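Our collaborator T.R. sent over the components below with a one-line note: 'Predict the complex.' Nothing else. No constraints on interfaces, no templates requested, no preferences about which chain binds where. So this is a plain run: every listed entity goes in together, and whatever single assembly comes back becomes the starting point for the next discussion.
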Amino acid sequence: QKEVEQDPGPLSVPEGAIVSLNCTYSNSAFQYFMWYRQYSRKGPELLMYTYSSGNKEDGRFTAQVDKSSKYISLFIRDSQPSDSATYLCAMSGGGSNYKLTFGKGTLLTVNP
Amino acid sequence: AAGVIQSPRHLIKEKRETATLKCYPIPRHDTVYWYQQGPGQDPQFLISFYEKMQSDKGSIPDRFSAQQFSDYHSELNMSSLELGDSALYFCASSLTGGQGSPLHFGNGTRLTVT
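Returned assembly:
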């Protein structure tokens, strides 16, 4: 079993829809949780960064972390065609271990 | 804002050749990470450096080596290349310390081994 599980999709939604992306993980040492967006042939772009449990909102994006359930989510409101990309969840442990462990990524297509 | 710069963007090599990939981190970032991403795969951690010293090691083959220089740029050296080494290689940098620091990625080097 991988440390981080993410449904690879693909996920196809109409423009304006609310998108929900999720990851589960098994390593209880993870404390830092990130969502990256990756367009084809580009590097992962940091979208959201959260520490420990709770919610964080940034514009149309909301990240949720539930450490008790080892479950994280990313919500995208009013989705746009420009949101079409692969979304990767990533996480790391505390102390000096900042290397990221990624989920497989979910391919999202927002249709105009 | 300045981002992570990687060079070259594309590289084509033959089997058993060597390749050197370069990474220039965001200014003032002290930690660099190398990741390998195969087609349709998530990025796999290879190795990281903090203040020019190796800080963590992942699934990096013995044929690969890396280092971080005094100006904080890093190079990934790959020898005896195999077909399976064809992938996107990403470098990321962060400012490490305190409550953690998110990684910022470059746009990668696409290596094709023929």
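Summary for T.R.: Chain A has a mean pLDDT of 91.
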